[in-house]
């Protein structure tokens, strides 16, 4: 089974390639998270929001990541974080070329 974790939060930047450089160490550490298959980084500068779409092997791993991620964001002054976990319907998703 696979589970999507959707996260978004208020964010003031950096954006684009500046974000890429600033967040590279964090991205490297996220790669090592238990149960993580992949992450897509999201950013919307016009709304001052950022976040990500994650694919985990279990809902427990996704929930454990939420706890770690929220603590890290809060320590950096980021609050009002929104999380949702969804079970992935793999058959329909694969029919529509999902990378799972």
Automatic annotation (TrEMBL):
MF terms in GO: monooxygenase activity
Superkingdom assignment: Bacteria
Organism in which the protein naturally occurs: Acinetobacter faecalis
Coiled-coil regions listed in the entry: none
Taxonomic classification: Bacteria, Pseudomonadati, Pseudomonadota, Gammaproteobacteria, Moraxellales
Protein known as: Monooxygenase
Keyword Oxidoreductase in annotation: yes
Pfam entry (one): ydhR
Keywords tagged on the record: Monooxygenase, Oxidoreductase
């Amino acid at each position: 089974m696979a589970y999507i974790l959707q996260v978004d939060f208020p964010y003031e930047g950096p954006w684009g390639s500046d974000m890429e450089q600033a967040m590279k160490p964090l991205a490297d550490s996220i790669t090592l998270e238990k149960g993580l298959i992949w992450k897509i980084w999201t950013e919307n500068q016009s709304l001052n929001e950022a976040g990500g779409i994650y694919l985990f092997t279990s809902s427990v791993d996704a929930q454990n990541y939420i706890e770690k991620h929220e603590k890290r964001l809060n320590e950096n002054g980021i609050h009002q974080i929104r999380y949702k976990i969804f079970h992935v319907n793999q058959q329909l998703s694969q029919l529509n070329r999902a990378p799972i």
